[in-house]
């Protein structure tokens, strides 16, 4: 089961999180370090990390909750991202997302995604 969770997070990160954050990097004109965590039994477990090699980098922490889906190799997920340390104060504080990930198809189905502005605290489900 743990291996499937890591595969699911890899697919979510590659197909959804990283492309979103790369777009954000273009908008704020700076690199963003990224740390992706699974929330499991009240603990956060880091599963992906991408640091930048510069002093003027922003940062993004993504927390994901996953549950087994209806089909084999499918997980439902909820996620939140909180960003910080942007050089230009744009007010963008992250995003929330919800969807399904299909490990065998290496695909993500996005059910909802919302950009967040000036929201600097984790939602109740994502607090540790």
Architecture overview:
The chain is an alpha+beta fold and about 130 residues long. It contains one helix and six strands. Strands 2-1-3-4-5-6 form a six-stranded mixed sheet, covered by helices on one side. The relative contact order is 0.20. The model has no long low-confidence stretch (mean pLDDT about 90).
Layout of helices and strands:
Blueprint: H1 2-28, E1 32-40, E2 43-50, E3 58-68, E4 74-84, E5 92-102, E6 107-117
Parallel strand pairs: 1-3
Antiparallel strand pairs: 1-2, 3-4, 4-5, 5-6
| Alpha-carbon Rg, integer | 14 Å
Mean residue pLDDT:
89
Global shape: globular
**Binned strand content:** over 45%
Largest sheet data: 6 strands, mixed
What is the ordering of alpha helices and beta strands?
A: HEEEEEE
Helicity level: 10-25%
Count helical runs.
1
DSSP summary, beta strand count: 6
* Class per helix and strand makeup: alpha+beta
Poorly predicted segments: none
Q: End-to-end distance, in Å?
A: 23 Å
């Amino acid at each position: 089961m743990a291996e499937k969770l890591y595969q699911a997070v890899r697919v979510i990160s590659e197909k959804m999180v990283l492309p979103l954050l790369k777009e954000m990097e273009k908008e704020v004109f700076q690199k963003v370090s990224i740390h992706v965590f699974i929330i499991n039994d009240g603990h956060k477990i880091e599963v992906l990390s991408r640091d930048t090699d510069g002093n003027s980098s922003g940062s993004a922490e993504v927390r994901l909750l996953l549950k087994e889906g209806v089909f084999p190799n499918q997980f439902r997920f909820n996620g939140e991202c909180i960003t910080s340390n942007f050089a230009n104060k744009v007010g963008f504080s992250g995003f929330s997302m919800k969807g399904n990930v299909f490990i065998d198809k290496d695909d993500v189905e996005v059910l909802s995604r919302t950009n967040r502005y000036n929201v600097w605290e984790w939602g109740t489900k994502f607090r540790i």
